[in-house]
Specification:
Molybdopterin biosynthesis moeA protein, domain 3, 6-stranded mixed beta sheet, alpha+beta, Molybdenum Cofactor Biosythetic Enzyme, Chain A, homodimer, Molybdopterin biosynthesis moea protein, domain 2
Chain lengths: 412, 412
């Protein structure tokens, strides 16, 4: 039987390359670039004032940064124009002139610095004149030169970048109003089991509500994929066949239940009859042992098929361990993202299977902490409402002590 | 001038209590409960088999866990019924009988344990009989008793819980198909500045694209709020007045630009004319110093108004520091969420203002690390595409060394 890590690798090996589509920048949040993006133009496109102040010509006698001017006499300059952001300068000041300029406005081409307004003295009678001490005249001060931020052709973002708000801002700044991203995977969910009723119904005797389907729909959404809920199939060949046939049109099909060794566990057999090739059945873990995984290729369309155990905590854990990495890779991201945390209390693993234990993850002074949450068994979804992740705890390790470092999977 | 922490508190003090609405469970992901939720029914509703196996009557001579049976002779029991999940038992086995049962199926009322199928011997000639060793007959084994997971009235989730997939699953399990949650805040965004053009356009001389609006729209979405983009206002009283008047109908109005001391910085004046009361103007920080914050109450409707600086990195930082906590509290969550990380390299703060420095946050063996990203100034959005958070670095501290712990704000 595969270990969890072998099973994850076996899943990732089957993931096809992402499909791509062009989306508008306003729809691009959290999408993943499939192509490198390069800077299309000089930034800034013009020399720009970084402060409100006065732009002064290079002919006025500027000094280099760190230098002191030899002449200590203050300069008296005539203000010949005012430029605000969005305007263009109409003239270049000569050595006895200055241009009043606002932050973000274009600096006249012959100017060498902007002296901030707070370092300038005004003539009380005549606002058309300003007095500036020569030591303020530092070449390049408070001007952002053309291309100082970026040049045409500079790399801006790499393929595989998942777009966060700052990426959206930078793309907008460069006028890149649509981007080539991976398609969001469509994930069909088919619950199976005669005992299941829709979660809004009162179950009859011996029946339970289908909690896996809304939970998986939420998990799929957090993976930036699109859930397609196919309802509940009965434990019969006909019912399963119809549901599986509909589900195989998606990029990923998740079934819940019907994968153990019970007399009504018909899912593996029906999947194989539908042309799905089994990659593995069963993983050395608790919960989640009966997990089934296979793939179906049909005229270029690939569907990854997961038979998740029916117990809610098993289904939750198997999604996080196996389905989420598959969806990440299907979206052009690295498959796995491994985290570690420090156990806050001792833990004893019972049995011979590695345990994926619900934990509360928190952060204290930069260190991730994991506190195991008591849970009775894999149908105890109530216990997991207090958890926000799970930790891998291995039987060969022996008893765990508080302070030990363990591998964790955050759920959010 | 307020410090950042004083300013955050001043913002949070103005946030009104969340408004509530009822939403379907399938729409409830990431929404925040405004009422405590209690368990509405016993869980499980019937005694449930935890394994595939054979249910045996309490009259058959069960032992308590840890006890050994006095009688070593194996029992021979007649299989009188098979129960699969979704069925109800039709009879109670007597002391010489057993019931074949599947995981999740209801256990007959008089049964005291389920013996797993792998611990049972079958009679080769007669599948109607099973042989069970007495030490397998442990009272309560592999049965989940009625109410063992939860009783009616037990607390299930507290008000203030942000619903993750496991919460959705647990609510579905208990048939809670809609929940009372806080309304998603509506956040209007009005960019201001004569120099701005829509991000899909080629800017004319001296003009730049409006990158703040799509970036803020993305930030608003990551805060589970609803962006309302109001376009670009000119630096004129008429244009600002129209935009502000439309924006004040939202729960939060964000303006960008026009809050410095330049001659066209008309935003504070126009906001006050529109009935917005200023709470503060200016915060001791870099970038973001010109931030303006006020509130307008109009016949029960409250609008929080932020005048964000126009430079993209300032706008980004001010959103994360001030707007996000306000949106969290407006959604019923705690306002602030403080994290820490370890600096990977030395850092020197220039000037007298605390710096909110773009950093790359990563995790190594359970420890959060922060690596400062070089950036030239607050219009350098290109530098921030490599960052995923920011760190607070204070001038009074003196030079920072690698390994020091700093306060950080993750951007995702």
């Amino acid at each position: 039987m595969y270990t969890v890590f072998e099973a994850i690798q076996a899943v990732l090996q089957q993931v096809p390359v992402p499909q791509k589509e062009q989306v508008s920048l306003l729809q691009a949040l959290h999408r993943v670039l499939v192509e490198d993006v390069f800077v299309p133009e000089e930034s800034p496109a013009f020399p720009k004032a970084l402060m409100d102040g006065f732009a002064v010509s290079v002919t006025t006698g500027l000094v280099h940064a760190g230098q002191l001017s030899e002449d200590s006499e203050p300069l008296r300059l005539r203000v010949v124009e005012t430029i605000v952001a969005g305007q263009v300068p109409h003239r270049e000041p000569n050595q006895n002139e200055a241009v009043r300029i606002m932050t973000g406005a274009p600096v006249p081409p012959n100017c060498g610095c902007v002296v901030p307004v707070e370092h300038v003295e005004f003539h009380e009678q005549d606002p058309e004149w300003v007095v500036i001490h020569r030591n303020q005249l530092v070449l390049g001060a408070n001007i952002l030169a053309t291309g100082a931020i970026a040049h045409v052709g500079d790399p801006l973002m790499k393929a595989g970048t998942q777009l966060q708000p700052s990426h959206v801002g930078a793309l907008a700044e460069f006028g890149i109003s649509s981007v080539s991203v991976s398609k969001r995977p469509r994930v069909a969910v088919l619950a199976t089991g005669n005992e299941l009723v829709h979660f809004s119904r009162q179950p009859g005797a011996g029946c339970i509500r289908n909690s896996n389907q809304p939970m998986l729909a939420a998990q799929i959404q957090t993976a930036n994929a699109i859930p397609q809920l196919l309802g509940i199939a009965k434990d019969s060949a006909e019912s399963l066949k119809a549901g599986i046939s509909a589900g195989l049109r998606a990029d990923v099909l998740l079934l819940t239940g019907g994968v153990s060794a019970g007399i009504l566990d018909l899912v593996p057999q029906q999947l194989e009859m539908a042309g799905v090739t089994q990659i593995f059945h069963g993983v050395l873990m608790k919960p989640g042992k009966p997990l089934w995984f296979g793939i179906r290729k049909d005229r270029g369309h690939v569907c990854l098929v997961f038979g998740l155990p029916g117990n809610p905590v098993s289904s939750l854990a198997c999604f996080e361990l196996f389905v989420r990495p598959a969806l990440r890779r299907l979206s052009g991201l690295p498959g796995e993202s491994v985290f570690h945390a420090t156990l806050t209390e001792p833990f004893q693993v019972w049995g011979h299977r590695p345990v994926y234990q619900p934990v509360v993850l928190s952060q204290k002074c930069g260190t991730m902490l994991a506190r195991p949450v008591p849970w009775s068994n894999s149908s105890d979804l109530k216990a997991t409402v207090n958890a926000n992740g799970m930790a891998l705890l291995e039987p060969e390790h022996g008893p765990y002590g508080a302070g030990e470092c363990v591998t964790v999977w955050p759920w959010n």
